[in-house]
């Protein structure tokens, strides 16, 4: 919230405690950089019906995150939208399983 709106919503001590708890529980959210935080904030605002950036700005930000290798800008789960009838998924090659296909069969 602070990086997006500039408003502090909790004390630094509470934030540090929350961050430590999330980190111990394996959350990826504690490792966000500023671009990733802006991206997630933009997605949430858009889904609530009040976008905080233009489509062009969002597309540019998403492209930058993809180029940086950010896991937040690449969805690995399929998504289908009833309104538009569009289904999307970003596939990632599984090299281990691909290599298994080329191993000789055992007897």
Structural account:
By secondary structure, the chain is mostly helical. 48% of the residues lie in helices and 6% in strands. The protein has five helices and two strands. The chain has helices spanning 2-5, 12-24, 34-47, 55-68, 95-100; strands spanning 79-81, 86-88. The protein has a two-stranded antiparallel sheet with strand order 1-2. Helix 3 crosses helix 4. The protein is extended. It starts with a helix and ends in a 7-residue tail after the last helix. The model has no long low-confidence stretch (mean pLDDT 79).
Give the topology string: H per helix, E per strand: HHHHEEH
End-to-end separation in angstroms reads 60 Å
Largest sheet: 2 strands, antiparallel
How many E strands? 2
Q: Which residues sit in consecutive blocks of at least 5 with pLDDT less than 50?
A: none
> What do the pLDDT scores average to?
79
Task: From the alpha carbons, calculate the radius of gyration and give it in angstroms.
Answer: 19 Å
Individual helix count: 5
* Overall helicity: 40-55%
Assign an overall shape. extended
Biggest sheet: strands side by side, in what order? 1-2
Category by helix and strand content: mainly alpha
> Which strand-content bin applies to the residues?
5-15%
């Amino acid at each position: 919230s602070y990086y997006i709106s500039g408003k502090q919503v909790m004390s630094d001590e509470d934030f540090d405690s929350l961050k430590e708890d999330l980190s111990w529980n394996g959350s990826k959210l504690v490792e966000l950089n500023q671009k990733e935080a802006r991206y997630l904030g933009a997605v949430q605002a858009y889904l609530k019906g009040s976008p905080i950036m233009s489509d062009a700005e969002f597309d540019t930000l998403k492209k930058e995150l993809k180029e940086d290798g950010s896991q937040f800008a690449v969805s690995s789960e399929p998504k289908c939208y009833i309104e538009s009838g569009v289904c999307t998924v970003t596939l990632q090659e599984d090299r281990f399983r691909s290599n298994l296909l080329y191993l000789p069969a055992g007897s």
